[in-house]
Amino acid sequence: MLDAPGKALIEVSGLKMYFPITAGVFRKHVGDVKAVDNVSFTIYEGETLGLVGESGCGKSTCGRAILRLYEPTAGAVRIDSKDVLAADADTLREMRPKMQMVFQDPQASLNPRMTVAAIIGEPLDEHTSLSKKDKLARIYELMDQVGLNRDFANRYPHEFSGGQRQRIGIARALALNPKFIVCDEPIAALDVSIQAQVVNLLEELQDRLGLTYLFISHDLSMVRHIADRVAVMYLGQIIELAPRDPLYVEPLHPYTQALLSAVPEPDPEAEKTRRRIILKGDVPSPANPPKGCNFCTRCPKVMEICRQTEPTFHEVQPGRFVACHLYQETAD
Ligand code: SF4
């Protein structure tokens, strides 16, 4: 956990990831699914930025676009001052070791036909020229770091539990000494009993190796535990970003208020007075977002201006950013 913000390691500005919708025999372009729509934020060195929101809000797509696992439609992403989106294939290959990803489903992300040693060693084969002996030593070191028994190096993924498989995925992500890791719902596929172990491991590794995380999750309680700051996404846009404690104690955006009202309070006294805000209606399609504020079809505090004019995402208090007309005057 970070005491004070360091230097900006990740700078995302105006990021858009649109997936084209085509129709007819000639596959005419008739629209776009706006999975990520004009997203901007910074992640400081050594911090964990939580990225939360309901399923389908675009948070995983955002994480993948930052690492250029997708080709973003527009915007800029700088990692350690280097432009990821403008990089040619060779430059991107050189940058890859510094930015890695831990995937949601360790079962699906590990090749079932490869041994653990081969899985963890794969990035070393691609990006280093280590001798066989040095490579094995590095694989053992990585297995130690994530709490896997070295004796199991020649076993296959199906021989491990879900939690152990996620440790294999983390070891692979660490192989090239990354600075930045996108953790995409890293505990969502795991039993509740082992989720905390994996989160604790991620925290220990962060402290030991000085890692910076984008922690994508729909689990707001877990994000409260691990994140320094939290960004809330709705329908492809970040609608609030704030340091963790102020966000959880006093959420500003009506969507964040609704989202957090569903999270049980750790303090029994606060839990007694928790009032659940139930949102009406469904999330609109990202292919056809509403005019004005993208939350206006469900917002309990909607005003006339909300249906006409899109609110700007701006700083309303030091370090607190919101996109909502309720706070618009503060920006002027
Ligand atoms: Fe609700 Fe209006 Fe704020 Fe959007 S801008 S969140 S509709 S009050």
Main β sheet profile: 8 strands, mixed
The whole-angstrom Rg is 21 Å
Per DSSP, the total helix count is 12
Going across the major beta sheet, what is the strand order?
Answer: 6-7-8-3-9-10-12-11
* Helix proportion range: 25-40%
Mean pLDDT: 93
Name the hetero compounds present.
iron/sulfur cluster
The CATH topology name reads: Rossmann fold
Please state the second-level CATH architecture.
Answer: 3-Layer(aba) Sandwich
Portion in beta strands: 25-35%
Would you report the number of β strands?
Answer: 12
Q: Which structural category do the helix and sheet elements fall into?
A: alpha/beta
What is the terminal separation in angstroms? Answer: 34 Å
Order of SSEs? EEEHEEHEHHHHEHEHEEHHHEEH
Can you describe this structure?
The protein is 32% helix and 25% strand. The protein is of the alpha/beta class and 332 residues long. An eight-stranded mixed β-sheet has the order 6-7-8-3-9-10-12-11, with helices on both faces. Strands 2-1-4-5 form a four-stranded antiparallel β-sheet. Strand 11 and strand 12 (320-323) form a beta hairpin. The model has no long low-confidence stretch (mean pLDDT 93). The structure holds iron/sulfur cluster. The site of iron/sulfur cluster has 14 residues, from loops. Iron/sulfur cluster binds at residues 253-254, 293, 295-296, 299, 301-303, 306, 311, 324-326.
